[in-house]
Amino acid sequence: MYGWIWRHLPGPTPVRVVEALVLALGIIALLMFVVFPWAEPLLPFNNVTTPS
Amino acid sequence: MEAATEVLPRVVHKHEDVLPKTEPETVKIPRPAPPDGVARKAVRGFGELMITAGLVILLFVVYEVYVTDLISAGKQDEATTALDDQWNESNTVAPVDPQRQVQYDLIEGKAFAKMYIPVFGPDYHFSIVEGTTDKHLEVGPGHYVGTALPGNPGNFAVAGHRVGKGAPFNDLDLLSSCDAIVVETQTTWVVYRMLPTSGEEAGWAEGKAKNPKCAKVAPLKDSSNPASGPYSKTVGQEIVTPQQGEVISPVPHFAGELPVAEQAALMTLTTCHPRFSDKQRLIVHAVLTMSYPKANGFVPPELKEQ
């Protein structure tokens, strides 16, 4: 998977390194701001109330 | 002898012959690259997926424990600023009559009071918002809609996160009986103290009651009717199932009706238990021991307790 991505990044090695970093940061941002906030309510850490 | 000496040099010679031959052979001939077969690709792909999944989970922990704290800190600051503005504004408009019932603007998601737990340190303070949905609790501890208000008879019930999102009730299990929970409203400082735990109740008068912090704290149990009085089950700390909503009713665990005039003024804090789980709820009950009208520069002595 990672090898495949590396082979498909265009440009010489230094450019590829930058591209890979941007890609990784983009995925982290996607997880932090979209996926995790969505997934969090489905997980059991946040139920702190009792029925009123 | 001669035959033997003739043989020996030959053996040595053979060794010398063999060593230079074999060494270059193993070094020079490169190992043939293994064919990138389907099985090999599949195993590698699977391995990489597992590593990726591990990284994603680690990242989620970072998000849950740190990033949500940052997001909530921003929201808590906003709520506190809004509350301060509101208090300053209305204080300049009309002098507050201490005899009058405190008026609250209870708007869901908006802060209406602040809470301090001095034993958790001087920097422990949170603005309490109205409402206990996920959205409200992201801002800070949330007041259960419809439960009593600070200082009033009944049960002022507040829920808060224990993991992430500022985790206001992270250390709630460390609170011990007689520890102060100070609530600041627009007009009043209200001091609650945690009730004796079920283990402490029996020897209370001889034991912890002598601590000056405990001057106004005593088991709520009716001593003449310890088994079935309205407050027979109200203790400082309890762990209940998530369905047990009776812990935040005006008289916790009491099915009957008790006139408001006879109700104790309680504060109840709820959070999840054990940490990182929602299997149970950790409940802390505290009782009103003191209240002071707010005045310029006055800070309740309870706030300095450690």
UniProtKB/TrEMBL annotation, chain A:
This is Uncharacterized protein. Keywords: Membrane, Transmembrane, Transmembrane helix. The chain crosses the membrane at residues 20-39. It comes from Umezawaea endophytica.
